[in-house]
Amino acid sequence: MQLAHNWANWENTRHSYELMARYVFPKFQQLNDNREASLNWARDNRPEFMGQAMMAVGSRVAQHVEKKGSENIRPEILAAMGLDKKADAAE
After folding, report:
1. SS3 content of the chain, % helix, strand, coil (to 5)
2. CB–CB of 45/29 below 8 Å?
């Protein structure tokens, strides 16, 4: 099958070929099915992943505060965790 017809300049024709190869052919050849399924799975599970990540970070910050104190933790982080320097200093 020949797509060339010399009606457009070579750069436009080449760009058209690139678009076909990038978007059209993979769709009809089902080459992106696994990729799309993976992206959908990640999107659908994002709330759980973000919750787990936030819990892990919070746990690690709490461990750090317990072990080394809160001197080098930003006040807004301590406030978000329900910790503040006054409570830390009272201990």
Report:
1. 75, 0, 25
2. no
Supply the pTM of this predicted model.
Answer: 0.53
pLDDT tens digits along 36-81: 999 999 999 999 999 999 999 989 998 998 899 888 888 998 888 8
Tokens representing 3? Answer: 């797509």
Long-range contacts of the stretch 24-32 (C-beta < 8 A, 24+): none
DSSP class of residue 72 equals: T
**Residue 12 identity:** N
Residue positions counted in the chain: 91
CB 71 within 8 A of CB 78: no
In angstroms, rounded to a whole number, what is the distance separating the alpha carbons of residues 85 and 65? 10
